[in-house]
Design a protein that fits this description.
With 100 residues, the chain is α+β, with helices and mostly antiparallel strands. Helices cover 37% and strands 14% of the residues. It has four helices and four strands; from the N terminus they run H-H-E-E-E-E-H-H. The chain has helices at residues 3-7, 11-20, 62-69, 73-86; strands spanning 22-23, 26-27, 38-42, 57-61. It has a two-stranded antiparallel ribbon with strand order 1-2. A hairpin with a 2-residue loop joins strand 1 (22-23) and strand 2 (26-27). The chain is globular.
Length: 100
């Protein structure tokens, strides 16, 4: 299977992530709480083979998403903690597409 297919976020997964990261039914940034301009962020980046699965995705507003991709480790560390708190047995290695 192609990497692009594995890192793609299916609609059902996208919907579940929006629901998980919602407050009163409105998707919000898990870092700052902003309910506008919410995007889904791959914890393990797509370019590194990060899968398009719930355990690898969080909602971030556009400004916070940009900060993470510009090297903000405080937000990225929070994302790691947030995901590990939500999924028993969460493991970064299981979030990466493997060949074969």
């Amino acid at each position: 299977m192609k990497l692009k297919t594995l890192t793609h976020i299916p609609k059902e997964v996208r919907d579940r992530v929006y629901e998980r990261d919602s407050y009163d039914g409105c998707p919000c940034c898990i870092w700052c709480g902003r309910p506008k301009y919410v995007e889904q962020h791959h914890y393990i980046e797509r370019s590194r083979g990060g899968l398009g699965i719930e355990q690898n995705l969080v909602c971030l507003c556009k400004p916070c998403h940009t900060k993470v991709h510009n090297g903000n480790t405080e937000i990225q560390n929070y994302v790691r903690e947030y995901l590990s708190d939500h999924y028993d047995g969460w493991n970064e290695e299981s979030l990466i597409a493997r060949k074969g």
